[in-house]
Fold:
Amino acid sequence: MKKRIVRLFLLLLLGALIVPALPAQAAGLPAPSQLGEQGLHVRLLQEALHQQGFLSIQPDGHFGALTLRAVEQAQRAHQLPVSGQADEDTLAALFARVLYQHQDTKKQSIELSGLDGLTPRESGPGDKGTAVLWLQQALIRHHYLNLPASGVFDSGTHQALVQFQTDQGLAASGRADRDTLPRLMTRPEEAGPLTLMPAWYAGAEDLIPMGATFEIKDVRTGIRFTCARMMGVSHLDAEPVTPYDTQQMNRVYGGTWSWDRRPILLRYQNQVYAASMNGMPHGYVANRQNGMPGHFCVHFSYSRGDGSQRVDTEHLNAAFEASFANWDDEVGTAL
Structure:
């Protein structure tokens, strides 16, 4: 009976993700917002606007006049109705990469539910919204579309889709139909690992087992080092594996250990995850051979502090910053 309830819950959740469109909160994105609101959801919106060059001020969590103008600029850039409100279509455009991650993570989530075949709803010329964003992201990944994903099914999208259908031996209808979508949503084999941003309490806590080793790459410097997961319930506790790894991590912080949050990528079993870390050794030690007097904390999206049991905004912002990076991105600092 318990298994049936869990399965029903997963079916309802997956249904909410796909039909008729993907709600922002269901995809792990900020809630819609508008002028006068404040809170974490506004700050995350501002982070996305700032990352993409629409907002010049530092995010502060207050939806004021400058944020309003930034949202309007983003809506114009993505060919959306200019309302100034961060509605679901606007959030889908700003966080298109995160939305596409839900498609790419289907193997992980489906292994638990026994379901498969997650694809966006069908679409055609003139349509717009989340389904079209997914379609365009897939066409880009298959090297058929050279334009940014806008969420609008325009002539360029139509031409790219017709070419894909022709190359696949499908009817060249120019519509993202039920015959085309399953093939299109298969990730190209030559593509490198996509950066995912899983939420801690939605499965991220189980991605890296206790005692497993993984790689960390600091997004801003490109420095890499190997770590092992010690423990961690509200977030992941880790230690560098060797003295060299400790030295590399210390380089990230300019030679001085610090509580500063930094955006990082974790690579485990050829999958890459966006996260955040601090650089202050503290607490218990499991590895007494690595030269680090303690462990450090790795936070995924919406993980919490041990004592406060609250989401750390700085860690969350750093994880969002990391979600825009790829493991193979070139960075100025030598590895």
Summary: The chain has three domains: 16-98, 112-184, 195-323. The domain at 195-323 is CATH 2.30.110 (Pnp Oxidase; Chain A). The beta strands are 195-196, 213-218, 224-229, 236-240, 258-268, 271-279, 296-299.
